[in-house]
C-alpha cells in the first residue's frame, strides 16, 4: 500500500483529521497490511490484512475457459472457481466492514468525549460577569468602610488626647 505520510504529518501538526487513501501496488502480502493505532500508547490496534483479489494467480483463482468448456467438468470447474471467488470477496468485504465499524465507533466515541471535555473546560473558565462584578464592588466597599473606620478611630483618639 502506498500511504502519503507527508499528508498525514501535515494533518497531525495542524490538529485536524486525516484521510488516508491507499493503493495496493503489489500482490497481497504482510507488507501491504495496515495497522490502525487506536490509542497513544499503541496498546489497542486493528490490523487490516491485505487480500489478493486479482483474477489471476493466487487471488481469486479464476482461469479462462478451460479446454474451451468442451466438457461438463470444465464448466463445473469454472462454476466452482466462481463460487470460491465469490466467497473470497464476500469474506474480505465482511472483514473490511467489521474493521470499519470498529474504527468508526472509536472515532465517534473519541469525538464525543473530546466535545464533552472541551465543554467542561469552557464551563470551568466561564464566569458570570454580573456576579463577579458584584463581588468586586462588595470587596471595594468593605475596604473603603475599613479605611473610614480606621480614620475615625484614629481621629477619636487624637480628640481624646487633645482634651488632656
Order of helices and strands: HEEHH
Strand numbers in spatial order across the main sheet:
1-2
Number of strand elements? 2
The pLDDT mean sits at 78
Structure description:
This protein is mainly alpha-helical and 164 residues long. Helices cover 60% and strands 5% of the residues. The protein is built from three helices and two strands. It has a two-stranded antiparallel ribbon. Strand 1 and strand 2 form a beta hairpin. The longest helix is centred in the middle third of the chain and has 54 residues, at 72-125. The protein is rod-shaped and about 140 Å long. The termini are far apart. 1% of the residues are buried.
Task: Compile the SSE list and pairings.
Elements: H1 5-13, E1 34-37, E2 45-48, H2 72-125, H3 129-163
Antiparallel strand pairs: 1-2
Main features:
164 residues, mainly alpha, two-stranded antiparallel ribbon
Describe, in short, the structure shown:
The chain is mainly alpha-helical and 164 residues long.
Amino acid at each position: 500500500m502506498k500511504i502519503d505520510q507527508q499528508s498525514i504529518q501535515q494533518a497531525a501538526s495542524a490538529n485536524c483529521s486525516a484521510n488516508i487513501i491507499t493503493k495496493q501496488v503489489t500482490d497481497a502480502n504482510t507488507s501491504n497490511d495496515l495497522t490502525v493505532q487506536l490509542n497513544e500508547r499503541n496498546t489497542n490496534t486493528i490490523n487490516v490484512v491485505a487480500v489478493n483479489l486479482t483474477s489471476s494467480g493466487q487471488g481469486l483463482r479464476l482461469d479462462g475457459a478451460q479446454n474451451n468448456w468442451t466438457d461438463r467438468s470444465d464448466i463445473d470447474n469454472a462454476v466452482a472457481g466462481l463460487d470460491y471467488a465469490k466467497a473470497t470477496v464476500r469474506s474480505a468485504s465482511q472483514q473490511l466492514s467489521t474493521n470499519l465499524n470498529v474504527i468508526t465507533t472509536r472515532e465517534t466515541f473519541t469525538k464525543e468525549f473530546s466535545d464533552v471535555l472541551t465543554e467542561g473546560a469552557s464551563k470551568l473558565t466561564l464566569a458570570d460577569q454580573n456576579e463577579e462584578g458584584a463581588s468586586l464592588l462588595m470587596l471595594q466597599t468593605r475596604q473603603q468602610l475599613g479605611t473610614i473606620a480606621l480614620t475615625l478611630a484614629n481621629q477619636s483618639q487624637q480628640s481624646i488626647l487633645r482634651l488632656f
